[in-house]
Amino acid sequence: MCGVLGIVGKAPVGASLYDGLTVLQHRGQDAAGILTCDADGVINLRKDNGLVKDVFFKRHMSRLTGNVGIAHCRYPTAGSSSPAEAQPFYVNSPFGIALAHNGNLTNADQLRERIFKDDLRHINTSSDSEVLLNILAHEIYKTLGEGRYQLSNDIVFEAVNGLFKRCRGGYAVVAFIIGVGIVAFRDRFGIRPLIYGYRDTDAGREYMVASESVALASQGFKVIADVRPGEAIILPMEGKVESKICVADAQYAPCIFEQVYLARPDSMIDGISVYRTRMRMGEKLANKIMREWPDHDIDVVIPIPDTSRTSALEMSQQLGVRYREGFIKNRYIGRTFIMPGQAQRQKSVRQKLNAIDLEFRDKNVLLVDDSIVRGTTSKQIVQMARDAGARKVYFASAAPPVRYPNVYGIDMPAANELIASNRTVEQIQEIIGADRLIYQDLNDLIEAASEGNPQITRFDTSCFSKEYVTGDINESYLSGLELLRSDDAKRSADTPPSELRDVSQLR
Asked: How many helices (DSSP H) and strands (DSSP E) are in the chain?
């Protein structure tokens, strides 16, 4: 997963892009980048590995001049984590195009081959975002026609339509085209989120597009709408926003894991409050406990910070049981399920959380987490609760068992590293060391996540159900993905490039 945003302003946008990117930091902690364009058409770019605050310093920001720009923060989903993979990417033909992307192309390998053989373009990295950029550039060139140099919005829309025909998977894209403005579009299922808005200034109206509404709100922009599945919008340097549905049969099937874990609770995604969704998740999980375990002996409900707090609080109210904060979080440690290597993840859990003994001692505690992925964190936390003096430790997951990898832009591990893969709930309970384990039912999760937008009748629930909405995922693809996402592959990705096999060989 990644965070993307773009701004078309009436004044320099570098500072607003930086501030917006920090609000989206939860979506990507591996690398960050900002690209701006000044009045003379000069492109200014700064990108590198690291957090936003560690990539950009005063000397960098002073060079990010111009009233239009795009930005990106990145989690790697496969392949290299080299600074060369950081976004945005840029090509200078035709017209000069920059692109930032959240998601994953499921046919990237085939596209990479065709780009080289048919489009006569060269890809410098293993990133599918660079693939997207070159396809967009080629489609613009093809639509424009040889010898024509006047670019119009209609030509851009037609080019995006050509891109939709070629690219499969999940993608939310923000691109800047010199002489046009910012072009944003979303795949035919709306798997990854994208939203845009405006703010009025003394100099005129400014526009912003971002992965989550919270980025707009932080900079004083008012929401216009979510970018719809299969839709492209143009935020122009001058004039009004134009939009076009480029895919006639597009339909909503957004990734449900955005609501479970990825998005900030203060965001609205496709008209649905993430905070309210997580409240409903807690309510439904409490109802399941009361239905299947009416004589429970839970003394206290304790969330595993931070994402599960909303669900845990609602569960405590529904169950009539006290809610307590039992763990203190070190906010300088990143998300653990993405960290490569079991030893590193186990060490990071102890660095990340510290138990408050008084809230555990001689109590039957119900620990609540948003989900269980590898199970490494869950096992460590259950043991921490016991070490703090808990009499019994129960564990509740606000999401169903994660049994299959996500292929649309979330760095979930290989299937054989998922604790729920080919295991029963009882077996998982034994592995993590809990006295009881309760999972959310998938139907309940879907009901919780869809309330508020009647247009959404379907989600991508593939990590729970193995039903991949793009319809192009088979066992061969998943096996190739496993080679890229296993701990061994990620350790190899940290070795010098000369010691690495070509990424295409791993696919």
From this structure: 18, 22
pLDDT at 451 over 90: yes
Is residue 35 within 8 A of residue 13, CB to CB? The reply is: no
Specify the pLDDT at position 118.
Answer: 85
Question: For tokens 């001049």, what's the residue?
Answer: 65
| pLDDT tens digit sequence for 157-178 | 999 999 999 999 999 999 999 9
Within a 13 Å sphere around the CA of 103, how many CA atoms are in the beta-carbon half? 31
The residues, any chain, with a CB within 8 Å of residue 129's CB and separated by 6 or more, are 87, 89, 99, 100, 101
Q: Which one is predicted more confidently, 504 or 210?
A: 210
The residues annotated with a catalytic role in the active site are 2
Residue type, 188: R
> Per-residue pLDDT tens for 111-126?
999 998 888 888 889 8
Distances (CA, A) of 70 to 47, 208, 217, 233, 236: 12, 9, 17, 15, 14
C-alpha torsion 149→154→158→161, nearest 10: 140
Q: Which of 339, 479, 492, 489 is nearest to 407 (CA)?
A: 479
* Radius of gyration of the chain measured on its C-alpha atoms: 23
The per-residue pLDDT for 338 is: 45
Ramachandran bin of 138, using left for φ above 0, alpha for ψ from -120 to 50, beta for the remaining angles: alpha
Using CB atoms within 10 Å of the CB of residue 80, give its burial: 0 to 12 exposed, 13 to 18 middle, 19+ buried. middle
For the entire predicted model, the pTM comes to 0.90
234: β partners: 183, 242
